[in-house]
Amino acid sequence: MSPKECKQFELEIVDDILGNLPSNSSRALQNHLDRCRSCRKLYGEWLKILNDGMNVEPSAFLYKRLKNSFLRLQIRRRLLCPATLLSAVSVAVIAVFILAISAIQSNKPLESWKQLPVASEEIPSFVMNDAKTVQYLIEPQNGRLGSANGIIWVNGQRDEVYCYMQNLENNAEHDYQIWLVKPVKKENGGLLRVIDGHGQLYLQQRNIREVEQISLSLEPKGGSLYPTSEDIVLVDFK
Fold first, then answer.
1. Residue 89 DSSP SS3
2. Is 78 exposed, middle or buried (0-12, 13-18, 19+ CB in 10 A)?
3. Of 191, 167, 193, which Cα lies nearest the Cα of 179?
4. Is 99 found in the same domain as 56?
5. CA Rg value for the chain
6. What is the edge-to-edge ordering of all strands in the sheet holding 233-236?
7. Helical axes 23-35 vs 10-17, angle rounded to 10°
8. Which 8-state DSSP code applies to residue 76?
9. Based on the domain organization, do 95 and 142 belong to the same domain?
10. Which mean pLDDT values do the consecutive 10-residue runs of the chain (238 residues) have?
11. Which of 144, 172, 176, 216 could form a disulfide with 192 if both were Cys (CB 3.0 to 4.6 A apart)?
């Protein structure tokens, strides 16, 4: 059975492990597990994680899948259906679990696109699939921005750049603005789109190979034509 056909069983697997799946649904799930090796593996992974009381951290891939399943469940408004009272208990457990794992993962510096807490289809393809893409780790200048960290991916042949940062502070008066530093000038690269402390920016611009550095500064809301504050992040490509 293909992974697409099996995705619907992820929450049922967690429900069953937590003892909240109705007996008829549990039997149907067990029948499916007898036929599906990938779901048996998934069941074993979640059994270990939940039985160990979250001492075992799931892989980023497994975490993303559960988070996406949880969001789909919210959209379907299953919590409003009386028949899903037990499932609602499991969903509450899953919600707490997701928040806990999010906190754990956000404290770890990013080292690969595989750690990004977003669906793979939201990541530009050149980041994942092009061997000519170069990755640069982001570290704030002079200890500014606290625990903020991230990665910039650059592909000079395709003139594409993707920046992802985590642990950013939401600022009501300022935006985080990217600057492309070339030999004779700084060019505006755009504003990071920041949601819940995570910021990202994709840009495609001519002559990316001329860029020697990428910097980040705090600018008034809406951005600036020229930098008005010191760099808080500087990534050197040379």
1. helix
2. middle
3. 191
4. yes
5. 22
6. 186-191, 174-181, 213-220, 233-236
7. 120
8. T
9. no
10. 55 78 85 87 78 53 54 47 49 54 55 72 87 87 73 92 89 91 90 89 90 91 90 83
11. 176
